[in-house]
Design brief:
The complex is a heterodimer of chains A (about 180) and B (about 250). Chain A has about 180 residues and is an alpha+beta fold. Chain A has 2 domains: about 5-100, Arc Repressor Mutant, subunit A (Orthogonal Bundle); about 105-175, Winged helix-like DNA-binding domain superfamily/Winged helix DNA-binding domain (Arc Repressor Mutant, subunit A). Helices cover about 40% and strands about 15% of the residues of chain A. Chain A is built from 5 helices and 10 strands; from the N terminus they run ββαβββαββαβααββ. Chain A has a 3-stranded antiparallel sheet, covered by helices on one side. Chain A has a 3-stranded antiparallel sheet with strand order 8-10-9. The termini of chain A are far apart. Chain B is mainly α. Chain B folds into 2 domains: about 5-90; about 95-235, Arc Repressor Mutant, subunit A. Chain B has helices spanning about 5-50, 55-60, 60-75, 85-90, 90-115, 120-130, 140-150, 175-185, 195-200, 205-215, and strands at about 115-120, 155-160, 165-170, 190, 220-225, 230-235. A 3-stranded antiparallel sheet of chain B has the order 1-3-2, sandwiched between helices. In chain B, β5 (about 220-225) and β6 (about 230-235) form a beta hairpin. The chains are: A alpha+beta (about 180), B mainly alpha (about 250). At the A-B interface, α1 and β5 of A face β5 of B. Chain B: Belongs to the SNF8 family. Chain B: Keywords: Protein transport, Transport. Chain B: One of its GO terms (cellular component) is ESCRT II complex. Chain B: It comes from Quercus lobata.
């Protein structure tokens, strides 16, 4: 079986017609389903948060069978993820896509657990610390995309679990947990 | 018989015919009785054989297939009923019913991908992957299980296309044109319109029509990604290694 790094690629990735958008509805639904699963799986294991449609992305072409996805196909698969709440377009032109292998709500739960596990219930952290600090090392939060993290924090803020405030530097924000 | 004149002659002739018939019937009866007796002996011995080699029949697919052949020759169908002596003795009925259920499951699971037509070889591979390895399954076993599925009237059928056997789980009727294309596709897993026209000497309308039908039935997939720019029609049912359901 073909591999990308340590990621095992599914069989269909080596079957050329899966790289052409299928015209028949049932066949296409199956095709879209397989690609959706593959994209989510791959992004989760490789910790990829943003896919650029016009950039080189490992899943968009398979040199072994000399096939690559057309722009239309890329957009179709990602749009399918968007419609399920597993992705979001970052721009109107649909050139960049945010991949939510955990939904925003799930990320909020992960933050909640992280805070509990580390006894940070009443602490203050900067957003940068959550992303790259010592506490989050080895957890899923380490290296998380900033946009997603901010969304998840807002979810918690709305529930009164924390407060977000402007930090000393203009581009960094702080979080006061109160769980 | 020499003909003698008068009513007496006719009566004698009739009586003689009756006698002959009686003798004939007797001989036939004795023959059938003997035959029945022989068959009965054979059956008992077959049963004894089955009892003795129970484990071999269960575990060894080649042995199992030979055993079935032997049974068929003497008119015994170990699969006819699940309550009969054979089923109790061998549990062989259960074996095939179980296999049948698994075949149905695999056919359903792969249907979105192959349109309800699956290569027998591939079906076997998927079956073996599901079973624990203590039980080996041969293509012969699959065929037997599928033949039992026919009574369900759900359109399970084995069709031969070229050298390959395909298992059909959808009621789609494949006509001769479809079959010819499937056969052609076996070489590379795909065909192009051009190839169909050339190899089968069809008009382009006929080729495109047939391919469109196969596409609509979900049996084919298009591929526009090749360098030469020619559209390829792939057939998941004839190419191995294309089934996405790896571990079910």
């Amino acid at each position: 079986m073909q591999k990308l790094g340590d990621f095992k690629l599914p069989h269909f990735f080596n079957y050329p017609p899966y790289f052409t958008l299928q015209p028949v509805r049932d066949t296409r639904e199956k095709q879209v389903q397989l690609w959706k699963d593959l994209i989510l799986d791959y992004c989760r294991t490789q910790k990829i948060f943003v896919i650029g449609l016009e950039e080189d992305f490992a899943l968009f072409s398979n040199p072994v069978i000399e096939r690559s996805l057309s722009h239309e196909a890329r957009e179709a698969f990602l749009s399918a993820l968007v419609s399920e709440g597993r992705a979001e377009w970052l721009d109107k032109g649909h050139r960049k896509c945010l991949i939510l292998w955990h939904r925003v709500q799930d990320w909020a739960d992960i933050i909640f657990r992280f805070v509990k596990d580390n006894g940070l219930e009443d602490s203050v952290m900067t957003v940068e610390e959550i992303r790259s600090g010592i506490e989050s090392r080895g957890t899923e939060l380490h290296g998380i995309d900033r946009t997603i993290l901010m969304r998840a924090l807002r979810v918690l803020e709305q529930k009164g679990k924390l407060a977000i405030f402007k930090g000393t530097s203009a581009d960094d924000e702080g979080v006061k947990f109160s769980m | 018989m020499r003909r003698r004149p008068g009513i007496g002659g006719l009566q004698t002739a009739a009586a003689a015919r009756d006698q002959y018939r009686l003798v004939g019937e007797n001989v036939a009866k004795i023959r059938t009785d003997m035959m029945k007796e022989q068959l009965a002996t054979f059956r008992t011995q077959l049963e004894e054989f089955a009892r003795k080699h129970k484990n071999d029949i269960r575990k060894n697919p080649a042995f199992r297939s030979q055993f079935h052949e032997m049974c068929a020759k003497v008119g015994v169908d170990p699969l006819a009923s699940n309550k009969g002596f054979w089923a109790e003795l061998l549990g062989i009925g259960d074996f095939y019913y179980e296999l049948g259920v698994q075949i149905v499951e695999i056919c359903l699971a792969t249907r979105p991908h192959n349109g309800g037509l699956i290569n027998l070889q591939e079906l076997c591979i998927l079956l073996r992957r599901r079973k624990s390895d203590r039980e080996a399954i041969s293509e012969d076993d699959c065929l037997r299980a599928i033949s039992k599925l026919k009574v369900l009237g759900s359109g399970f059928e084995v069709i031969s296309v070229g050298k390959k056997k395909l298992v059909r789980s959808v009621p789609t009727e494949l006509n001769k044109d479809h079959n010819e294309i499937l056969e052609l596709a076996q070489a590379q897993g795909f065909v192009t319109v051009e190839e169909v026209e050339r190899r089968l000497s069809w008009t382009s309308g006929r080729a495109i029509d047939t391919l469109d039908t196969l596409l609509d039935e979900g049996l084919a997939m298009i591929d526009d990604g090749h360098r030469d720019g020619k559209r390829r029609y792939w057939f998941p049912c004839v190419s191995s290694n294309s089934t996405p359901v790896a571990d079910t």
